[in-house]
Every structure is written in C-alpha cells, then in structure tokens.
Amino acid sequence: MTEALNSQPGQPPAPAVSSDPSDIFSRVRVVLVETSHPGNVGSVARAMKTMGFGDVPGSLVLISPREPDVQSHPDAVAMASGADDVLAGARIVDSLETALAGTAFAVAMTARQREFGPPRLLPRMAAAQARKMLVADRAGEIAFVFGNERYGLPNEAVLRCSAVTHIPANPAYASLNLAQAVQLIAYEMRLALPEAQDAPGAASDGLPNIGYAGEPATAEQIESMFGHLQAGLAAIGFLDPANPRELMPRLRRMFARAGLEREEVNILRGVAKCMLLARAPHDGKGAGDDDGGHDEPRVIGNDKG
User: Fold this and answer.
1) DSSP annotation string for the chain
2) What CATH fold (topology level) applies to the domain 219-283?
C-alpha cells in the first residue's frame, strides 16, 4: 500500500478522496518540504490525527524527505504514537508542483517577511479562507505547506501558494518545532470546519463543548437570586440601599455574560444566605427568608453528608 502511494517515475497517483462529498476533513492536506528528522514526520502524523485529519491516504504529503524510508523509520513510528495509519498513508513526491496538484488553495507557513508574495493572513483567517474554498467546491482540496526544520520554505515554494500565514508567537523566543506548528494550524482548521460543529460533543450553537453544561437557570430563579444577593450585600454594608448607585445593574450585566446555570444560582444564593446569617446576630433579623418558590440555597462546605 505504501509503495503504491509513493512517487514513481512519471506522474504519481492523486491522493484518494472520500466518496462522501460532505467529508471535508478528507480534503485537507499537510505538505512537508524536505523534512530532516523522521521523528518530526511521525509527530506531524500524530498532530493531524488528533485534530481529525489524515484518514484518507495522501493527506500527508512529503516532498523529498531526508530519510527515503521515513514511514518505516523507528523514530517516525515511535513519534506517531498510534497515528501509524496516517504515517503509512503518507505520499512521497519530489516537487511542490506534484504535492499541490488538484488543490484550489494552498497556505505557506513562514514567519519570514518577504517584499513580494501571497497575501499574509493570521492562522484563523487562513483557516476561514480555506473553509470557504472547501464549501464552495465540494470536490476541491486545500493544503498547508511547511518547510524544513532549519531553513523553512524557499521563496519559490512560497510564491506557489495562495496565502502565507505564521503563528504570532513570542517575538523574543518564537521557537516552535514542526509538529507544534502543524498542531496549531490543524486546530484552527478543525474549528473552522462545519463537520467539527456537528461532531459528537459539539454544543447546539456549533461551538465545541469544553466541559459539563448544567441546566440553565430560569428568569424567575435569577430574579429571586438577585433579590437575595441584594439583601445580603446590604446586610454586610457593601450595598447602601439609600444610595445603591450602579452596583446591582453592573452585577446583572456581569452575570448575564456568564449565562447562569441553576446550580450556580443556588451557590450564589448560598453566599447571600451566609451574608445574612453573619449579620443576623447583630440586628436580630432572620436570614434567607424569601418566597420559598425556588431551591433551598446551599452553604458550600457545610454539607453533613
């Protein structure tokens, strides 16, 4: 299989394309130009698979790597760490023209400023532009091109691309290895693709889930919480009821940005209850009395089991 994918005299076979026209991930290539270290090739394969790329043979294209048998090199296999299929499916060619054959949009990764050349985009903008190309042409492919670890991309390679991007790292120490750069670009590309938004674990708004999402608080629960919180703040002297200024409106705006969940409302009401309890011995008033129509606020840390 590997030998069939590698370049032969004459025109090499074009990379396979998924029969599913909606499989956008299969139409993204990563091209490595004259990579020196086999371990870096393996690490790139791992970075691609982590972000959902590389399922189709030929998604990783290697232009004249220093090690001809890089796909079977022990360092490459070790660094692939489970992405052996992406590594084995890599296509080896001898020119950028062959590597980019069939692509509608190619992005060169280079931090070097050039007087002339393709438009320069930040990674997120480059990924967004690549996504537009993929959506507009259901059979089209795009590519991201990465240079040699030491020398980067030559001018002639950059000029063959549609756009240029770079990772805006610390200017005093902009040292990323090849796989790190591929990982960041693959991450941006994953966020840009519609398929990632429909994948398991994606939220209904199309944004990836990054953790547990609880039951949203109702308007009534939030209003009750604000009344409870206002009483607590007044009890400890933080809020002057006679001159409240903009404290409560600002708190409302802050919590509105957060999108409170029911359990979070209960936590805040527990805080308010503690404020009132702390004040109660001094003024003889009860603490936490309200309409009783909502969850009993918890005092965090005082659970008895």
Assistant:
1) -HHHHS--SSSPPPPP--S-TT-GGGGEEEEEES---HHHHHHHHHHHHHTT---STTSEEEES-SSTTGGG-HHHHHHHTT-HHHHHT-EEES-HHHHTTTEEEEEEE--S--SSSSPEE-HHHHHHHHHHHHHH-TT-EEEEEE-BTTTB--HHHHHTSSEEE-----TT-----HHHHHHHHHHHHHHH-HHHHTSTTB-TTSSBP-S---PBPPHHHHHHHHHHHHHHHHHTTSS-TTS-TTHHHHHHHHHHHHT-BHHHHHHHHHHHHHHHHHHHHHH---SS-S-S-SPPPP-TT----
2) Helicase, Ruva Protein; domain 3 (1.10.8)
Domain ranges of the chain: 2-197, 219-283
CATH 3.40.1280.10 fits 2-197, yes or no: yes
pLDDT of the residue at 258: 75
pLDDT per residue as tens digits for the range 251-265: 888 887 777 888 999
